[in-house]
Amino acid sequence: MRGFDNRGSSASMPAMPYVLRNREGLIDSLHREPEAGASFLPPDHPEVLAFLGREEHLQRFASMDADLVRVLEDLVDVLIVRNVIRITDLPAEAQQKLFDRKHFRDRMQQHALKLFGNDSVATPADEVVPTDFGDTL
């Protein structure tokens, strides 16, 4: 049977994937040309990517996005603490999203495992903390 199996490399990505499905409705094979009983799916369709073993790349990219969101949240916090911007400089929708995420993170930390006792390592809010860049927060 001419087609593609899930061992295909990126070079074997079909230009026009026609799929044949098994009895459970899962993709059984991919074909460049229309086959009897085959249906068309775009090459970037999640089922096609999963069949070709490329779904994990999408999950890794989503994880990177989540990490970047955390970096941006921290950046906004630093800019606010240093009086570079005020929270009110941001659109109302952005303010709400930042507050929602901050409250969620605070709730998650309250339930986190405390390895060093009751805040014995935490610094008071008004304490000056030196950074690696020769300045302070």
Explain this structure.
With 137 residues, the chain is mostly helical. The chain folds into 2 domains: 10-53, no CATH class; 56-110, no CATH class. It contains 3 helices and 3 strands; from the N terminus they run βββααα. Strand 1 and strand 2 (27-31) form a beta hairpin.
Layout: helices, strands, pairs:
Layout: E1 18-21, E2 27-31, E3 39-40, H1 46-51, H2 55-81, H3 92-110
Antiparallel strand pairs: 1-2, 1-3
Spatial extent as radius of gyration: 25 Å
Task: State the helical fraction.
Answer: 25-40%
- The backbone outline, from C-alpha atoms, is elongated
User: Termini distance?
Assistant: 65 Å
Please indicate the percent range of residues in DSSP E strands (runs of 2 or more): 5-15%
Number of strands: 3
Strand-and-helix sequence, N→C? Answer: EEEHHH
Tally the structural domains. 2
Largest sheet: 3 strands, antiparallel
Please, what is the average pLDDT? 77
Strand order of the largest sheet: 2-1-3
How many distinct helices? Answer: 3
Low-confidence stretches: 1-14
The secondary structure category is mainly alpha
Which keywords apply here?
137 residues; 3 strands; 38% helix; elongated; disordered N terminus
